[in-house]
Amino acid sequence: MNIQKKETHSFQSEVKELLHLMIHSLYSNKEIFLRELISNASDAIDKIRFESILSPELQKITPKIQISINKAQRTLIINDNGIGMTKKDVIENLGTIAKSGTKSFLKSLENKKNSIKNELIGQFGVGFYSSFIVSDKVLVRTKFAKNTSNEGILWESSGEGEYNITNIIKKTQGTEIILFLKKEEDEFLETWKIKNIVNKYSDHITVPVEIQIYDEKNKTYLWEQINKAQALWVKNQSSISDQEYQEFYKYLTNDQNNPLVWSHNRVEGNHEYISLLYVPEKAAWDIWNRENKHGLKLYVKRVYIMDNSQEFLPNYLRFIRGIIDSNNLPLNVSREILQNNSITQNLKKALVKRSLKMLDKLSKNDNKKYQSFWNQFGLVLKEGPAEDSENLNLIANLLRFTSINNKIAEQTISLKQYISNMHEKQEKIYYITADSYISAKNSPHLELFKKKNIDVLLLSDRIDEWMMNYLVEFEGKKFQSISKEDSSLNKLVEEKSVNTEDTSKEIVDFLNRVKKVLGSKVKSVRLTNRLTETPCIVLSDSNEMTTQMAKLFTAAGQPVPELKYIFEINPKHELIKKISKINESDNFEEWIKLLLDQALFAEKGNLDNPHKFISRMNKLFIQI
């Protein structure tokens, strides 16, 4: 190295504080530095590719990034044959925090009309300084490609507030970065470690990355390429086999199973990006924990940025795996946290629709596979109506249920199927929520529907009641809980409605006696023709909280207002007929309270005072 005319410069103000932040706070792990340096080298090569089109006189190169290790000197060297830098570039780009040559380069392209896609990254200006995370001192030897002389520039600094610039002899274009590693950073002097980092972060950049190895047999040094240098997702879909998609999924996720389905999509225009989304065959063991990390793997121009990027998919799609590779996605200065802006939001909207349409296509083309998906991830997808009102119809179309007519607990019926089989007099989609499938299937609320052969959806997952608060209608048909009061239910009853105006004096007297016994324990007492096998039931008022919702609140430790039910009595039931003829007031009162407890027990699955209920029942048994 022929050194001439050494100059000392100061970093911009407060550089020590900024470098301290960079080294100790901005990056979550040390190995990021190599990702950043390879990214910068890739940028430099992309620039020379572009410039060589506009300036044919530029030297044609075989692009490459080379990494070598010198254990004796404790140095790690990253060398590229890209555009290089002038002295002015070095001062502007390496002497100033948050000043980016790439950003300036992009700005210069705005006034040039061309169809060339600029595969450029590194728009943030601080990536280079991540070198000081692992280095005591950093040297940069560079030569600008348009410089026809052998003169280059040496930049050196220990990151303490000053840097030196020296004119040197450098015959080849490009940039060489020499890191003098700290004592505690021995792992970065190991070839296997460097290979692992490159495979993890830079496997899919389009420039070959080579590492120097020693050939023991021939006693010479060789260059070995350690990255694939082509991302699978940038290839044309027609050229990618199913096996390649499956193998890439396994590489991406460490899942031993093949994916159930995938969607590969390229979007061009204002926001250019490629997405490759997968649906796993089986749910991860921690899928039910909404707080666990999930999301897509993020790349910018084939350079790995972060795992589990949650900004692109909502929680209810946390089972989706895959990658997004953006050409113009804005990131914060460390590239590790996405900025919350319109581009990110637009990408999220597009990816959500892409995911839902992928599932919709699967449901139409392969019912068996879709059923497998639903059995694994249906509970997660049920979170969707509450989280994503914009795509409510798409989500609702993907939901699956069981019902009276289904006769099995497995959820296989779509809402479209339910509507196509609706009764001619039926105005709404009827459903019931309960603690279990058995409890829902045997609810006394179903008696009329079984008699009329009207199907009812049986909802027994804990999330169902919460979901139905947001799932209001589907294809113009409103949802109606059959355990709540509703006028449409009366239209399903062929018999004339039962009320105090068209019933006998005996029934009227009976109702008045029941009202007197129960008083404020219930909201109202009335007769019903909805029941065939059961003497009485309780209903929630249309404007009040349902029983299942109250249970959810209780389980979450939330206060629940007192629930007062509508008490409906079946006048045709033999037990009601017998009780109505009891004249002794105390005995009559015990029977009515027993009936109410029975109805509450059937509705809630528990009683506030089960011992009192049993005692009352035993007392009445003795009297029979």
TrEMBL record:
Residues the entry annotates as binding ATP: 36, 40, 80, 85, 93, 99-101, 123-128, 175, 335
Protein's recorded name: Chaperone protein HtpG
Region (A) residue spans: 1-335
Region C, annotated ranges: 552-624
Entry GO CC: cytoplasm
Complex formation: Homodimer.
Record PANTHER family: HEAT SHOCK PROTEIN 90 FAMILY MEMBER (PTHR11528)
Subcellular location: Cytoplasm
SUPFAM superfamilies: ATPase domain of HSP90 chaperone/DNA topoisomerase II/histidine kinase, HSP90 C-terminal domain, Ribosomal protein S5 domain 2-like
InterPro entries according to UniProt: HATPase_C_sf, Heat_shock_protein_90_CS, HSP90_C, Hsp90_fam, Hsp90_N, Ribosomal_Su5_D2-typ_SF
Family: Belongs to the heat shock protein 90 family.
Listed GO MF terms: ATP binding; ATP hydrolysis activity; ATP-dependent protein folding chaperone; unfolded protein binding
Name of one Pfam family that matches: HATPase_c_3
Function according to Swiss-Prot or TrEMBL: Molecular chaperone. Has ATPase activity.
